[in-house]
């Protein structure tokens, strides 16, 4: 399938206070690769993304027990893409298919960071990743050990930048404290969930980090597993991921279906429909553009499972300019979840 | 021989203030590997330990003149264990079978640390050990040289953590002083002797180190060469290690037999018998549980020479909870060697 | 073609406050290698330069899209020159022939510096360059990232010294600020344009840097694309570079032809003719000697396209001593562009 | 030739404030290896030295234009000596057989240190030397560059310790200043000339360095090219080195023959004869023992050209104890060159 005519040009953004440029829209391997979508389809999605200018492909050691990294590495070889053109990431924390004694195959100890990165690079078939993430914070490992270990990874040429995923603001600040104290490199990016229904962390808790540490964001779940597209407004279609996937995260979502918070989300999404219609865009485009409107977002990671979805998502780049202050106020009024500024300026 | 039913689940503890987890019970290669017990037996002991959840296997360059490392490395290959599942250590100081001019094949000079580690890794057939110990303090080598050399080992990927064995509290503090001054990594663990009959160092001298430097302990000789099992209460059996081994340490023990301190120890052990009987455990289990009761002990290294011994030792994990404050007081009353707190809090 | 008799002996100068010695006259690959002059000719020029004592050969990743580095590397192999005898440089910033997505193939991010240097070394067929330059300043990449990345290049043995090209004095000072703060190596040399018609930067803006940071200069365009030789005094010859080259820089020069600044330059050059005649040297020799007269210039990079030009340029070494204070004053009177001292001494 | 009976046991001394032990007597490759004594003889001398416990073999990149390193490396392989048993040194400064353009093949620039060490290791056939010396101070290279470059050599595993040769006290202190400032490793040893006729530097100028920086000495020329053996007391034998060698240093000595300073030295040496006779040792043994008597001397490097000379020199180890305070006073009275203490203690 070839790229449709008329798609907007990809936008590239600096990854926080670094010199690396990532496509504003990127492709994640969370559900897609090696999972319920077969490999050929994954290849097609990656190619579609590459063709529309996506340069950032996100993965993690534990996605599909390591299979996602293998498929991503296979795609890079299959299509003969130049390494320099790509920004490849992976994340360390959860380990992969475990051996007999997995106690040290998880977390952010020096042991798991080094062993995990070595395993990931082997699966990817790469000498280095561009970005290496701590996939969670590890309260059992001293922060200094983790900061030193990620710097060891960078010093040995196995990664170019390191960052975090789903850390608290305090944990990120603590990592920088050790980096500064020891003259080491601190975490330059964080990967949180961010979408219209989940904005407290990015717009509230993290408020000071962008200026203070130059934190860049590579956010995931911009459409909240599709809820924000409006496709669940009238119930769960049988062929959707929510209806079929065995993934734990999705199963967790399934369990929410029908409870109060789920109902509240569906109602909120339904009330966004008129705003999208007025702007003559789909609700998915509105939700995606809303995320990209936030300049602290370096890249929004999407989990497309068909090439058409990739093309659709890219259209949102054109819609960002439609989000005038007035439209943003209308959206805030519907969402009712705008964080109060934590920074007081006297 | 297969694992008996009903053994308690292995417990894993953080190695001091690090993110590494070691099994509370571990296996040491001091007497066992390559020594008077043939290799096949060693393999059987290692397998038994691995099967009950032991992940930490301890060795040293000089155990059996380097043979212990070879056998340990052979076992890892033979059983196809995953490297990530294992915590492998060795220790540098004493050198191994010497060349013609061994003056620099001993101690903690940069030369011996680097050459010693390279030799150990070759014998083990590994790219890195998890833990590297300074097997003694070296008063002839400047502390700064030793601290720098162990950091060189870590920076070149040959070890993940470094520590000490049989150092004084002052020496450990001095190592940290240089590590802090130079922004380097300090020693995270110490390997002292620790058991009911030898507790002054761990409970007295080291008292401040656990909080101050996050020191973890991997203690050896929890049963004091079997004395604490009570098996020498009525004299030395002919087939025991004390009766047969050529090992220098054991020979040193032999020389003590019959002297005043030996008699005193045997009498003390005999007086512990009622306490063990009251708890319905063996004296060996009591002694082992007593060591594990100390939370500053990350791992107790045992020197089993038969698989059955491994299984027996593991049972002590269940006995720790029997050591109530009252029982501990009774034990202290028998031992009469509880160190006075050195830390004064006003 | 063999070296003519009577050429002066090459002079070697320290590269700023470093221990490296570069020939006062050096050969650059800007227009020459792989470009409009065929490879054999390039080999001949390099050999001529080498034979007269030139030890410094300058290149850049983007010269002729990477072809210049290949030809330079081929020459070194072809002539069997010893690596230790040579000072080889290249420059990172502009990238080379791009892949599909060149956003990260440009600039001074850690990614492009590492990937760019690796690519350059592969094209050159060398394990390291002596000098690595940041070919421009990159205002999008944090200075700290750039300083760290060049130190990574030095620490991994891929370059011996790093410097800048066409940076401002403030940017150079800022790089040193981060180097000093982090205990890293700062930029030791800068490569600016410098000639009789362009002296504000070298003699004005950079005035403090020589003493403050030990900055050395490897200047380019000492003859300003030949203008200072006087050969364009009577119009543009059809067979000159200005008449024939497709190079962008030269095309930019072409566009200036006939405008006011071009006319002013030509008039100035014409007025230098009597001075050259009085000293019994050519105008080219005068211009070259004038550049070498500045002791802050470690090396003047020339872009000879024929061996004869190399020999001619070397003659200027003998002419430096003719530039007495009186002659220099006469030249300043013609040029009328002597920068006012920025450093005030009370 | 086998080791004679009755030789004293070799003494090992710490190399300054380091953990490395060097034999108090060592063998240097200055005149011997690859020079006027053929290789087989060199092998015999090295074997004799090794057999009497010499573990330190000293070389330099420029000794016999690199040939000394090759022969030393050949000997190590030939005899199958274990690397750990040896302390091998070389020195960087003078370069070796030059290429066409040797300007950067000399001195202490980062370029020559790295390229020089790589070349030396290749000639020696070793992965690392134990000691790397700066063979002279280089006033043209910034001290910081030199200190960083030697640390790079240590960090990349190519040497274990670095030091200096024929530096001034101020230069050594300056190197430590940069090492301390940057958290790097400073020079641990200096190689000066030291003997009864040349003691101002070691006993005067360097007085504070032993305590302040832990400086160790590996001194050369303990017998001052044989003058102190008394063999030139009655003129120059035709078959001696002074009579036959083409070495520049020796030729420089030859030129002194007959001048006032030479005559004064010969007279002084003649007046030492009665002291040696009273102690029942040869003058050579006296001179050698006198050097070893100085505890700041870690090793005295000798340049034996026959195995018998090695055995003779070793005998001086037994003679050190004969140098009572009274004997030392008698010697000082003859020499008349005892430095005045520079350190004033109030």
Commentary on this structure:
- Chains A, B, C, D: Keywords: NADP, Oxidoreductase.
- Chains A, B, C, D: Belongs to the shaker potassium channel beta subunit family.
- Four copies of one chain form a homotetramer.
- Chain A has 346 residues and is of the alpha/beta class.
- Chain A has one domain: NADP-dependent oxidoreductase domain (TIM Barrel, Alpha-Beta Barrel), CATH 3.20.20.
- Helices cover 43% and strands 13% of the residues of chain A.
- Chain A is built from 15 helices and ten strands.
- Chain A has an eight-stranded parallel barrel with strand order 3-4-5-6-7-8-9-10, surrounded by four helices.
- Chain A is globular and about 55 Å long.
- Chain A starts with 11 loop residues before the first strand and ends in an 11-residue tail after the last helix.
- The mean pLDDT of chain A is 92.
Spatial strand arrangement across the major sheet of chain A? 3-4-5-6-7-8-9-10
CATH topology of chain A: TIM Barrel
Helix content of chain A: 40-55%
CA gyration radius of chain A, whole angstroms: 20 Å
Number of domains of chain A: 1
Largest interface: A-B, 28 and 25 residues
GO molecular function (chains A, B, C, D): oxidoreductase activity
Protein name (chains A, B, C, D): NADP-dependent oxidoreductase domain-containing protein
Family (chains A, B, C, D): Belongs to the shaker potassium channel beta subunit family.
Domain NADP-dependent oxidoreductase (chains A, B, C, D): 25-334
